[in-house]
Amino acid sequence: MTRDRRSTLHSPDALIDVLGARRVLAFGAHPDDVDFGAAATVAALAERGVDVTLCLLTAGDAGGFETGHDRVEMARRRQAEQEEAAAVLGVREVILLDEKDGWVEPTADLIRQIVRVMRQVRPDVVMSPHPERAWDRMQKSHPDHLACGEAVVRACYPAVENPFAFPELAEQEGLEAFKIRHLMLMAAPEERVNLRVEVSGYEDRKLEALRQHFSQHPDPARMEEFVLTRLRRIHAAAGIVDTSSEGPAEGLAGGLAEDFHWVVVNGPDTFAGF
């Protein structure tokens, strides 16, 4: 019987098995994007030996709640905060591109930069903000998030696997085309969610990572309660629990989960061009 992915709650071990995940490349438009969207999942994967790299399009220089701050200093602070947060989660490397916070667009130049990073890391799984607006809560659909998602999706297919796209990357840098297998899109519209990951036990790591983004939280206690409430609601929305690589589920009732729109870019049945 085929399981409905929308109702399936995957354990981290089952997720690794399903995705064949050895390397994950996570993209965010700003520091803290991935920490809000997927920090607990990232921590669980990294703890199991999955190599996780984070790539930020901007340094988040337009962020923060203080008035009159210097954008250069804010960028420096936020980059340092992200490095600390990444260390909490077990992320191997943080790569920073040079887009301007608040002005991200899915240009050919940005797609080229993303393809370069993808070909350097050669991930099995790519995480990114979703390119579609979620009307249930506008804050998770910041224009930079949408632009980041669109650029990443365009890079995943067809650019990164097309040797005729940005051929200079192969000719000058030795970065050959390859195929990405899976996309996990964060902050998806509710109707797009088809994957939930059981992250009970990793909530403290997620909150600790978010605490590192001190410049962004005028009310840390409210932020933490919002995050925990969201994790509980995502878990409650799931049905079947997939623990195929772990044996019977125990203690998952009333747990915590993160959700994604899972897209198979290249699978066993993928036919090029359609």
UniProtKB/TrEMBL annotation:
Signal peptide: none annotated. The keyword Heme does not apply. Keywords: Zinc. This is PIG-L family deacetylase.
